[in-house]
Amino acid sequence: MLASIVLSSLGRELQPPLSPIQRLDFPYQESILSELRISHLHHMEPGNATQISEFLLLGFSETHGQQPILFGLFLCMYLITVLGNLLIILAVSSDSHLHTPMYFFLSNLSLVDICFTSTTIPKMLVNIQTQSKVITYAGCITQMYFCIHFAVLDDFILTVMAYDRYVAICHPLHYMVIMNPCLCGLLVLVSWVISILNSLLESLMVLDLSFCSDLEIPHFFCELKEVVQLACSDTFPNDIVMYFLAGLLGGGPLAGILYSYSKIVSSIRAIPSAQGKYKVFSTCVSHLSVVSLFYGTSLGVYLGSAGTHHSQSSAVASVMYTVVTPMLNPFIYSLRNKDIKRALERFLGR
Question: Is 220 strand, coil or helix?
């Protein structure tokens, strides 16, 4: 009897101390443990949300039976864009008569258009051919970076070309002094640097976002606004930066273009003869057409798609400024410009 009492007392001393939860009654234990599990899951959720490896580019997935037609159409448009702009670059570089600021900027615009379409169309063609919608997370961020970069650069080059036309028409006697090779190179270099810094900033801010289960992008490429809208973390800083830079880097160049052409119109009105007015204005028609096409399609996409999120209508509209505009630029400049026509004839004649 005495031995059993001693053994039981020793057993109680050897038992580990009870935790605060174990001291509670069983129902209270279950309740507290449940709360702890929920809080643990909530603590882990942001970390799990960021561990994504791919997005889905919906593109034109609703048109299943028309995929071969879309493949052929976009392949032709891409080849026309690359070949047309490449011919402009080769014609300008091979003809010494075209080694002027105007054609220097035009060849830069053609190079940017080739790069712009090459960031989106090849991936879309591969997805159509392989019947896959997948793009990796790294691939999406990279594509988004270059899309932003070349879109802003395109805008800046058009603005520089407007300034070139302003100097040529409003200050013709000082044109070659003002638009010297050093200034032309500096204008293009500054355009490249600003567009690189802008795209780098916006891409790095996207890397800080967390993404959940909805990873479907209703576009055929990783467009910044669509990617940001997929995030399940706070996107307020991204939205502020995105709209501020869009207003600054989109509205600023547009204001510069409008100011340049207001001065050009004033100078043209001062020319006495109608033939002289037509001759001067004809040098601006090609650039005005490209500017109208670029800004018209871009504004149409972003203003018209405000109420059509997760709809393919915005993807179709995006084709206008990402594919159609770069494709039409060589035709606009070559059909309206006799110097380009002669240079192309001499180049192709070789």
Answer: coil
Angle 192-197-199 (CA atoms, 0-180°, nearest 5)? 95
- Per the document, the length of the chain is 350
CA 270, 273, 278, 279 torsion-angle sign: negative
Which residue ranges of the chain lie beneath pLDDT 50? 1-3, 5-7, 9-16, 18-50, 310
Count of C-beta atoms within a 10 Å radius of residue 117: 22
What pLDDT, on a 0 to 100 scale, did the predictor assign at position 296? 84
Three-class HEC string of 159-210: HHHHHHHHHHHHCHHHHHHHCCHHHHHHHHHHHHHHHHHHHHHHHHHHHCCC
Neighbouring CB atoms inside 10 A of 147's CB total 20
Fold observed for domain 54-348: Rhopdopsin 7-helix transmembrane proteins (1.20.1070)
pLDDT at 23: 45
Domain ranges of the chain: 54-348
pLDDT of residue 267: 93
Measured over the CA atoms of residue 276, residue 279, residue 285 and residue 287, the dihedral's sign is negative
CB atoms within 10 A of CB 118: 16
**What's the pLDDT score for residue 41?**
34
- Please give the distance of CA 38 from its chain centroid, rounded to a whole number: 40
Q: How far is CA 135 from CA 46, 54, 72, 217, in A?
A: 22, 6, 21, 10
Helices (H) and strands (E) in the chain, counts: 16, 3
Q: Which helix (H) or strand (E) holds 14?
A: helix 2-14
